[in-house]
Amino acid sequence: MATVADPVGQGLVASLARPGGNITGNAILAEVLVTKRLELLLDVFPKAKRIGYLANPSNPVGPSVLNQLRVAATKIGVDVVQLEMFVNLKTAKALGITIPQSVLLRADRVIE
After folding, report:
1. First to last CA, the chain
2. What is the model's pTM?
3. How many structural domains does the chain have?
4. Which of 34, 59, 63, 90 is the most exposed place for a label (fewest CB within 10 A)?
5. Angle between helices 30-44 and 62-76 (to 10 degrees)
6. If you compute the radius of gyration of the chain from its CA atoms, what whole number of angstroms results?
7. What is the pLDDT at residue 2?
8. What is the pLDDT of residues 5-42, one digit of tens each?
């Protein structure tokens, strides 16, 4: 197993305590840690009332993490805004910026 967000949810193992096989890897536990990460963010920025969430739209765990974040944020009294990543190649070229292919592949929209 490579690094995954939720090995149980993605069907790679039966449970974290008893995976049911011989598997090695790293679990990010994105859903489990959402509330803690939000609390830590608000410890650093206690006056924040709106949090932006930028995620790779092709990640299968993304919608679940966003839902967990919204639940946690509602309990704390913070708004969550889902952001999309746009890449404007014309502007980048005018500014002399080269956009790496890896960024272009992850962008929600590329403006030529």
Report:
1. 37
2. 0.61
3. 1
4. 90
5. 40
6. 18
7. 64
8. 777 877 888 887 888 877 777 777 666 788 888 999 99
